[in-house]
Amino acid sequence: MDKKTTGLSDAFKKSTEPKSFKKNPINGSKYTIAISSAKGGVGKSTFAMNLALALKSIGLKIGILDADIYGPSLPKMMSIDEKPKSEDGKSMTPIEKYGVQCMSIGFLVDKDTPMIWRGPMVTSAIKTFAQKVLWDNLDFIVVDMPPGTGDTQLTFAQEIKVDGVIIISTPQDIALADVMRGINMFDKLKVPILGLVDNMSFFETEEGKKYNIFGEGGVEKLSIDYKKKFLGKIPINIDLRVAADTGKPLVEANPDHKISKIFIEIAKKINDFFN
């Protein structure tokens, strides 16, 4: 093989090597925790808001970034109806509510406006929130990720320094199949998985009888199979739903509630992981 052919071969090999990405930390926060669900409708956003407030309740300084561009939940769940301020027209100051710093695309668009955006626009918006928001000396920023394992999740994990991810799922088989894909994605991206949470794990009547509406034990079994930490079970509870709908998450509205105590225990586990 002559030198010219060899040179072309080397150039081709170089051009096809996997790209390396520089992961940028979110300025103003010590750690970034992503809350992920490989499937929509499993309670990811409710978990994210309550976890953030649980972390605050144990004495930490917390921010929430609502990165679920197509379905932002933070404005409703945290009862925020105002726009963030910008002193220089380039950066934004997060809105503080219940002692937590908050940012969401929902602050910037009308609540009835559909987000008809292609992937690059979504990615650009998430980068802007990560880099242009003036987070103030946080211990943790909790990122409510979009559901799924697509381009948005991939880009975020490749370009933003994520210190750990919590994967939320219901115990039904159809949700667990997607969770496996989520675990494999984060493992390939070398994002530490802090653990799995079994959400809507069961329903308990006032008499104490339990009904496993979506199945039983699937999330915990998956955590064992994939050698990941199991963080706990959160049952179906009407108080949790009502609190979210009225704009004051349960951990803030009633920290002594039995469900709030589960979130606080998970928050302690997360804090212990980093400290």
Record keyword descriptors for this entry.
275 residues; alpha/beta; Rossmann fold; 9 strands
User: What is the CATH architecture annotation?
Assistant: 3-Layer(aba) Sandwich
> Given the C-alpha coordinates, what overall shape results?
globular
The secondary-structure class comes to alpha/beta
* Oligomeric form: single chain
CA-atom Rg in angstroms: 20 Å
Which fold name corresponds to the CATH topology? Rossmann fold
Instruction: Please give the largest β-sheet.
Output: 9 strands, mixed
Stretches where pLDDT is under 50 for at least 5 consecutive residues are 1-6
Give the domain tally: 1
CATH homologous superfamily assignment: P-loop containing nucleotide triphosphate hydrolases
Order of helices and strands: HEHEHEEHEHEHEEHEHHH
CATH class wording? Alpha Beta
Number of DSSP helical runs: 10
Measured as a percent range, the helix fraction is: 25-40%
> What is the average of the pLDDT values?
86
Report the count of strand segments. 9
Q: What proportion of the residues form beta strands (DSSP E)?
A: 15-25%
**What is the terminal separation in angstroms?**
57 Å
Could you characterize the architecture of this molecule?
β6, α6 (173-188) and β7 form a beta-alpha-beta unit. The model is unreliable at 1-6 (pLDDT under 50). The chain has 275 residues and is α/β, with parallel strands linked by helices. Strands 1, 2, 3, 4, 5, 6, 7, 8 and 9 form a 9-stranded mixed beta sheet that branches. The protein contains 10 helices and 9 strands. It has helices at residues 3-15, 44-57, 74-77, 119-132, 151-159, 173-188, 218-225, 238-245, 250-253, 258-274; strands at residues 29-36, 62-66, 95-97, 100-104, 138-144, 164-169, 193-204, 210-211, 230-236. It has a single domain, classed as P-loop containing nucleotide triphosphate hydrolases (Rossmann fold, 3-Layer(aba) Sandwich). 41% of the residues are buried. It is globular, with a radius of gyration of 20 Å.
